[in-house]
Amino acid sequence: KLKRIEDLHTxxxxxxxxxxxxxxxxxxxxxxxxxxxxxxxxxLTFSVGDRHRRxxxxxxxxxxxxxxxxxxxxxxxxVSPEKSLSYYKIYCKKLNVQDR
Length: 100
Prior knowledge:
Layout: H1 10-19, E1 28-36, E2 41-48, E3 57-64, E4 69-71, E5 75-78, H2 81-88, E6 93-94
Parallel strand pairs: 5-6
Antiparallel strand pairs: 1-2, 2-3, 4-5
């Protein structure tokens, strides 16, 4: 069943991964957010993988502040929820360190 992106929930991602051999879910946790207001972007650092088993890697991406990320059991979040709503018409929560 097709859904609008703003209507997706955690269970939709889990279901998609369970029925497709081409998809998998991996846990990542936001560890650092550094906003560059001049450029309208943010550097987001994630711990990707299982950090309890010491099998995680750190990855940093640069994204516009309005870019939405899906947070487990929370829904869409961004560095600037107001700009996400204005640009994408998606209601977002504030993305925070420790979000997964």
